[in-house]
Amino acid sequence: MQEIRNIVPIRGTVFGSPECSNLDELSADIAFLGFPYEQGCMTALPSGKKWGAKGIRHDEKGYKYQGGSGGKDEEACGWFDIDTGTWQLRGVTMADCGDVNVLPAEGERNSDSMTNCDRLTEVVNKILDRGAFPVVMGGDHTQPYPILKAYGDFTKFHPIDIVHFDSHHDFWDSIGGAKINDADCITRCSELPFVDHITSIGINSRSRMGQKDYDAAIAYGVNIITPDRFKRIGVTEVIESIPKANNIYVTVDIDCMNCFEVPGISGRECGALSYLDVEQTLKGIPMRGNVIGFDITGLIPDRDFNGITARVCNNLIAEALAAIFPSKR
pTM of the prediction? Predict the structure, then answer.
């Protein structure tokens, strides 16, 4: 039988960071990983999320990992933040590990031993074993569940709280009996024995949340912050409403933002969060606990006017990482 590779190489890397598709050689603070998967979406939704990581990698306007000033060319060069008067991400090493090898589905399984989601779990587990911080780029929003499953072997990260940015609650029980998809990923995460509190930010009151799903989320203890509530209480109180935790995992579906700021998505919403709402909240999360992983999802490059949404994703990743990792030089 032909050996199935867990990772496939890519063209271009996030921020121009070094490529490292051999995880046995991974030696970096941060590891980027693409998950070009959209089998968790309903067919009525626009397709193309599987190209999201490619769109983020091809954005050329953001942070440049390789650069410097004064004619010097250095890795992990960082950037100088004029608001804080400090260097960001300087000396923080990164590597792009490529994409999880997503194979055609045969029923619910696509190989003799492993589904695509299982393969994502295995790759993230290896990244964690190498001591790197995983940043996973979708793909659809199925991915938080298989990513968090990878943390099951690492008790030093237990318990884990989740901060979830989204216009949709993702707390359905299933879709047509299927229990692993982008509409119930938070439900599945809540069932993991090491997951504790969940805060969902940006949930639109006009989204597909029935009372049954709402009641289930409230019964679990999900802290739901709608855009209206966000605007009333402000970013500082939103951050303070996130429970203090030992470890926090952050998952961002970019449809949590106003559709005119992120046109390259499927679940376009009005009256949602702004870019600065999300960025400033991400910057505050490390004050609530140790952030142990991050994923971002929802970009459809073919719907993205002039690369606006890819630019937003790229910048959110950089700003979130800068808040988590202090400069080393």
Answer: 0.92
Over residues 304-321, the pLDDT tens digits come to 888 899 999 999 999 999
Q: In a 10 Å sphere around its CB, with 0-12 CB exposed, 13-18 middle and 19+ buried, how is residue 145 labelled?
A: buried
How is the chain split into domains, by residue range?
7-324
Residue 135 predicted with pLDDT over 60: yes
Structure tokens at 29: 């603070």
> What amino acid occupies position 27?
S
Q: What are the φ and ψ backbone dihedral angles of 52, each rounded to 5 degrees?
A: -60, -45
pLDDT in tens, 89-103: 999 999 999 999 888
Choices 3.90.1570.10, 3.40.800.10, 3.40.350.10, 3.40.50.10860: CATH for 7-324: 3.40.800.10
Output the furthest CA–CA distance in the chain (Å, rounded).
Answer: 61
